[in-house]
Amino acid sequence: MTDVGLVASKVPSAEVRHRTNGSHSLPSFFIVGPPRTGTSWLYQVLNGHVLVPAPTKETRFFDDHFHRGLDWYRYHFPRATTAQVMGEIAPTYFSSVAARERIRQTIPRAQIVCVFRNPLQRVLSLYRLKRAYGLIHWNFEQALEHDPELLASGRYATHLKAWQTDFGRDHVLATIYEDLRDCSQNFVDSLLTFIGAPRLVLTQSQISRIHSSETMTQPRSYYWTRTVLATAGWLKARRFDRVVAAVRKSPVRKLLLGGGASFTGLSTDMAAQVCNLFRREVEELEAILDRDLSAWKSVEI
């Protein structure tokens, strides 16, 4: 088995590296998540080293905004002064059939990167994120019933096989979140090799700054936070990403997000139920990766 649980490790040829030499350039790679697998950290590390959308991390083009056209999409990528590998870090694409098919139709030789995390920890983290941002208002058990993304994004083996079928196994890299967290430099080295980008040396501050939902709280007001988020989405759809980014970096952010009650932990019974929901997917992923993921079948969170 190769480092960091790689399914594919071939370096893309020059033929499939879409460089930013003109206005018609499109990404050559996509880190498709699923959500809450370190993609925000990867964005911060890779931003500037490779060409990614800025100031907005996720364009949501291939799942939500495809009707706006490629010119709208290209607008989100800064124009590079030198040839750089170009890509997008888009965790919502992982379980979106529409996004996968649209990428295949638009960029059929794209390099695809997936990052898999203990499904119980990941779904709980995603739930907390959605509550904190006012996307949902249910408790955890209700959210599992009413929010399709929570379960769909945990069908690791099912979606991985679909990406491999559409793009070819050599164009899909399957990695493990624990390797990102515990062996960050090796993880980034393997990732950059796969997408055909030069190596970079992580700083100690970068290595120690892996994002977590543990400090998140519920919003002060669900409806106020949801209204603010909807307004941000409206602005970004109309290319006012810099306005949204400026607010996000300002002290106003603390008034808009969080500030409510802390999240409670899961009961042992609920944790066991979630583990059972994803057990078959984990076992299939073990077979695909040829890697022991038995720790993902326990109820520890």
Structure description:
With 301 residues, the protein is an alpha/beta fold. It has a single domain (3-216, 263-297), classed as 3-Layer(aba) Sandwich (Rossmann fold), CATH 3.40.50. Helices cover 45% and strands 8% of the residues. It has helices at 39-46, 70-74, 97-106, 119-132, 140-146, 148-152, 156-167, 177-182, 184-195, 204-207, 222-237, 241-249, 252-256, 268-289, and strands at 29-31, 87-89, 111-116, 172-176, 217-219, 259-262. A four-stranded parallel β-sheet has the order 2-1-3-4, with helices on both faces. A two-stranded antiparallel sheet has the order 5-6. Helix 11 packs antiparallel against helix 12. The protein is globular. The two termini are 27 Å apart.
Keywords:
301 residues; alpha/beta; Rossmann fold; four-stranded parallel β-sheet; two-stranded antiparallel sheet; 6 strands; 45% helix
